[in-house]
Amino acid sequence: MPRRTVFQLYRPKTILNKSKRADHWFWSRYSAYPYLGCQHGCEFCYCRERKYAPYDDVGDFAYRIKIKENAPELLRHALSRAAVDVLFTGDYQPVERKFQLSRKMLEVCCDLGFPVLVLTRSPLVLRDLDLLQAINQKARVVVAFSLISTPDSPEYQRIRQMERLAPAPEKRFQAMQTLATAGIQTGACMMPILPALCDHPTNLQSVIQWTAEHGGQFVLAGGLTLADQQRTYFFEFLARQMPDLLSRYEALYPMQSYAPVGGNWRKIALQIREFCQRLGVQDRMPRPIIPGDKHALNKRVVEQLARQTYDMELDGQALSTIWSYRKAAWAIEDLEQDLGFFYRTLGIHGLERLPNVGPRMARHIEPLIVNLLPEA
């Protein structure tokens, strides 16, 4: 007999998660979500990890949904005291149709002028197109769809079995096209790329091609992570439903392993980059910048340094070099002054004095500033 879903209303004390600075993948500094657990119940979802889903029984994740009934009020209070930056929010699982907390949280963002990033597996996000457009006029909005296969993919049926109640990819791509037509920046997050299921070049190219054909501007890709109770849960699922894959995943994810051991991520990422270039989309998400942001130049330079860092990772360059670029990007992100004014006032010697920059990195950053100054 199918298990019945239970909804539990509660009133948490806080909702906003803050980072010191924006991450270099989604460009979000804050995150806030109205629900715990997810009715879609994708078998591979990292949100079953204990730090995200504090259930005694990991099987409750898809069937006991905790509803933060005071989420909009908490968010308004928290954002009213926060510096304006990108908020990662939106949870469009079926329960949202009834409680509409994601919509109410978007209303808060619209009122306070906060840019928003939504990552979803559901076309239900289109219900809030009016709000997304309003936020996009004040700040910026990005809507990314979780998409790891298409009907053209060799392992489509097995991947769909793992996605359980998530709406079909075709509907997600149709929603992507609607958003793109409405002027909303949108694209695909090919996460997670499941070994032996999603990593075949045919599947990679198909997802990117469908994204390009439906107005998507970017494809972000990432591998599967398995930790603590989610690892146990996923292996039990494979043993029951796809036993031919179990030994491969056990080898890739040995005990206490979070990321795959001995995987071929660089090869996959380079294939994705090649397909993206061929089909006219980016393999990085463009950074959303609020119109009139006094730190726009700073953020554009950070965006370029982050892209160069990713390039070096794909090239297999030394970790010390990669980290030097990453730390320089953080230094500019943390700079309180406008980088253009800072550079005009102090010149390259001012850049040299920034933490983790120095003369060599300053010479690299200077042309980035000069090239971007007319746009700032």
Q: How would you describe the overall organization of this protein?
A:
This protein has 376 residues and is of the alpha/beta class. It folds into 2 domains: 6-279, TIM Barrel, CATH 3.20.20.70; 296-375, DNA polymerase beta, N-terminal domain-like (DNA polymerase, domain 1, Orthogonal Bundle). Helix content is 46%, strand content 11%. It contains 14 helices and 10 strands. The protein has helices at residues 71-79, 96-99, 101-112, 129-138, 156-163, 169-181, 201-213, 228-241, 243-252, 265-279, 296-315, 319-334, 339-352, 358-372; strands at residues 6-10, 17-18, 30-31, 35-36, 64-68, 87-88, 116-120, 141-146, 185-193, 219-223. The strands form 2 sheets. Strands 2-3-6-7-8-9-10 form a 7-stranded mixed beta sheet. α4 (129-138) links the parallel β7 (116-120) and β8 (141-146). α3 (101-112) runs parallel beside α4 (129-138). The longest helix is centred in the C-terminal third of the chain and has 20 residues, at 296-315. It is globular. It starts with 5 loop residues before the first strand and ends with a helix. The model has no long low-confidence stretch (mean pLDDT 95).
